[in-house]
Amino acid sequence: MKSNINIGLGFRRDLADEFISQETIKPGFIEFAPENWIDMGGYWGKVLKEVETKYPVTCHGLSLSLGSPEELDWEFIKKLKQFLDDHNVEIYSEHLSYTKASNAHLYDLLPIPFREDAIHHVSNRIKQVQDYLERKIAIENVSYYTSVAAEIDEATFINSIVKEANCNLLLDINNVYVNAFNHNYDPKNFIKKLPLDKVEYIHMAGHERVAPDLIIDTHGEAIIDPVYELFDWTIQRMKPVPVLLERDFNFPAMTELQSELTQLESICKKHWEVHHEIK
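User: That's the sequence. What structure does it adopt?
Assistant: Structure tokens below.
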């Protein structure tokens, strides 16, 4: 029997001892933001090296700012390339958003206008980065709370960028659920329109309902049943890919985190487990 199932967990410093001991949480891979670890030495540099001996590594960027109007930050990209190579990072992903303008760092993931000119602008930036890094980027569909000067729908926007930039997609199921709830559309119809053959891996996470008509993508709560159900429905329409559980703060008992990993694994096995006869 060979398994296609690979369930990962975001590596956070608060959980470092748990990742190293592997007593309770046992993910198949880890993910972290390279910006938080580039040039890191000392104690935490040693911790990262130890963790990397135990798990395959993916990186999810925070500050490439693909939607920004100004030139790409090539000093950062140069450091990023070295980091990804030095740490044997298997997948590098980034948000389909922007985080800075006129050199002001906004410390948030802001939506890019769903427009034709933005498609060409972002696609060109992705291609430049991919050429320099000598690897493809997986771009993530982000949560947003208001659209900005939209002229086309979001699914068309994402599809067009993936095709024009020749990049991959990081499909965040919770972000789809959050946006569908907040903007009153059908999440399944949205997912049907995405290039699922280009999905390199999946994010799953929790969110917080702050008003009857508003939920916020927080990564600080457990995954709710409707998001699990959307995940179950989605993966039936895809080839097997890695799945990551995001939890950034408000950490529960490690048994509860492992329970979420186990539940994700169980859903994946139901649809993706491949059995081979032993001859």
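DSSP finds nine helices and twelve strands in the chain.
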